[in-house]
Amino acid sequence: MIKVGDTLPAVTLMEFSEVEGNGCSIGPNPVDVSKAAAGKTIALFALPGAFTPTCSAKHVPGYVAKADELKAAGVDEIWCVSVNDAFVMGAWARDQKTGTKVRMLGDGDAAFAKATGLTLDLTGKGMGLRSNRYSMLVKNGKVATLNIEGPGKFEVSDAATLLAQARS
Fold first, then answer.
1. Catalytic residue among 55, 73, 89, 166, which?
2. Given strand 12-17, what is the order of strands in its sheet?
3. pLDDT tens-digit map of 91-106
4. Which CATH number fits domain 12-167: 3.40.50.720, 3.40.50.300, 3.40.30.10, 1.10.760.10?
5. Catalytic residue flag (residue 24)
6. Domain locations in the chain?
7. CA neighbor of 79 nearest in space, from 2, 164, 130, 141
8. Of 48, 120, 128, 148, whose Cβ has the fewest other Cβ atoms within 10 Å?
9. Digit-coded pLDDT (tens) for 142-160
10. pTM greater than 0.90 (yes/no)
């Protein structure tokens, strides 16, 4: 399992872009995690699935609400990672009104979740292999803080916790 001091896995996530720009075409675009995190401070949070109750009601809205404070604390980008395809993540971004505040990154084949060792098997609930709920502060591609939730919990991966860690 990934831990503080480790480098983020060298995998590719997918991001849906509504508009062309910065070398991105409309539609799904690959995001090389190693390149995208290089030289930046990233507030990364992962969750079991788009449009699921806790994720939609609390997790994403918290990061959208705290985005300006996180940026003021030195965070360059906020990433939401979920085992969903880029189209679903794009639709969820529209629904959650993330705009340019939170990058909604799809881990469609769970490569990132598997590489971090932070998977959640929801096969019995009809959702298959998913990501555990967690947050981490990443500096230049390395994990600086890591907050892993217990089963069914939402206590330590919220935006307020990561903001306090970014400020310290």
1. 55
2. 27-32, 12-17, 103-106, 77-82, 41-47, 134-139, 142-148
3. 999 999 999 999 999 9
4. 3.40.30.10
5. no
6. 12-167
7. 141
8. 128
9. 999 999 999 889 999 999 9
10. yes
